[in-house]
């Protein structure tokens, strides 16, 4: 097995097909208000599933980055008391990334765990990233869907498996 095999990811493949530049970043409209409202990592859906329309989360999926950068930019000094509440993050280990025949990539759960990191969390969300419709298409928030689930119906999970199987009836 080569290093390239280890680093391959269907998530990276689909994201690399998009144009993700400063113009694309502006489409996500992440403001201090939206960050403060959406930063909680331990946010669960209320239905099975709940569509989570959260621009900050979609930005983190599309462009990544350290949650500490957002804390420094958006967290007011008076909120230091909640430093140990994790900020939602898509920089995860132990999540499954499954590419479907139609090009969609499904990412399930995973964890962001770093020793002594306030953003450590295990997730129970399902992220669907739609493939681009044309070459060099700009990645927009509409191409990312996040589904949340009640914790008691779909507990946070990591290091699980997900397998795409062919439907023998439809091919």
Q: How many beta-strand runs?
A: 5
Q: Estimate what percentage of residues fall within beta strands.
A: 15-25%
Low-confidence stretches: 1-6
- How do the strands line up in the largest sheet? 1-5-4-3-2
**Termini separation (Å)?**
31 Å
Averaged pLDDT: 83
3D shape: globular
What structural class results from the helix and strand content? alpha+beta
So how many helices?
6
CA-based gyration radius: 17 Å
Reading the helices and strands in chain order gives HHHHEHHEEEE
Helical percent range?
10-25%
Let me know the largest β-sheet: 5 strands, antiparallel
Write a structural description.
- The chain has 171 residues and is α+β, with helices and mostly antiparallel strands.
- It contains six helices and five strands, in the order ααααβααββββ.
- A five-stranded antiparallel sheet has the order 1-5-4-3-2, covered by helices on one side.
- Mean pLDDT is 83; it is low at 1-6.
Task: Spell out the blueprint of helices and strands.
Blueprint: H1 3-7, H2 10-16, H3 22-26, H4 32-38, E1 50-51, H5 55-63, H6 67-74, E2 96-99, E3 105-112, E4 121-129, E5 144-148
Keywords:
171 residues, alpha+beta, 5-stranded antiparallel β-sheet, 5 strands, 24% helix, globular, disordered N terminus
Quick summary of this structure?
By secondary structure, the protein is α+β, with helices and mostly antiparallel strands. It contains six helices and five strands.
